[in-house]
Design goal:
The chain has about 160 residues and is of the alpha+beta class. The protein has six helices and seven strands, in the order ββααβαββααββα. The strands form two sheets. It has a five-stranded antiparallel sheet with strand order 2-1-3-7-6.
């Protein structure tokens, strides 16, 4: 996959993290080794159950947004919508300045993604459908729009 994508990482017991990137060819390679990403440093890839990647610009519903909205902002909006819909564990809390944790309230967010989110309704519905299909896949799969990997199957016995 290249360009803008959404991705999710599951542990055996559920969805851990949802993210987005505009540089999937670099970011997804680095994701598992912890370079430029905190996830692998906190939850090592050896315990990841499933990784789903969705290339949202390849969906037909992305077409009408081309030239209207910045792809980076669309990616952030879709990430915001996925996180608020699925509430993945690692995205659900933030550190406060005093070192404590507070729950994330996606409905009160003033982020770029939250501000753009209402403009991507049709695309988000398509992403939800693809995400649901990909997250239920039981074997490593690559299609034009998504890929699913099971890291444990890639490790030597």
């Amino acid at each position: 996959m290249t360009g803008h994508v959404l991705y999710g990482v599951w542990l055996d017991w559920g969805l851990l993290y949802v993210g987005q990137t505009g540089q999937s060819e670099r970011r997804l390679r680095d994701l598992a080794v912890g370079e430029s990403h905190h996830l692998a440093n906190t939850f090592p890839p050896e315990i990841w159950h499933r990784v789903v990647v969705v290339a949202w610009p390849r969906l037909p519903e992305a077409g009408p947004l081309t030239g209207v909205l910045d792809p980076r902002e669309v990616s952030l909006a879709l990430e915001h919508r996925l996180q608020s819909w699925l509430k993945p564990l690692a995205n659900a809390s933030r550190r406060t300045s005093d070192g404590r944790w507070r729950p994330v309230d996606w409905s009160r967010s003033k982020s770029v993604g939250a501000r753009i989110a209402p403009q991507v309704d049709k695309l988000f519905e398509a992403v939800q459908e693809v995400w649901g299909e990909a997250s239920q896949t039981e074997v490593g799969t690559v299609t034009d729009v998504y890929s699913v990997a099971f890291p444990a199957q890639l490790l030597p016995d």
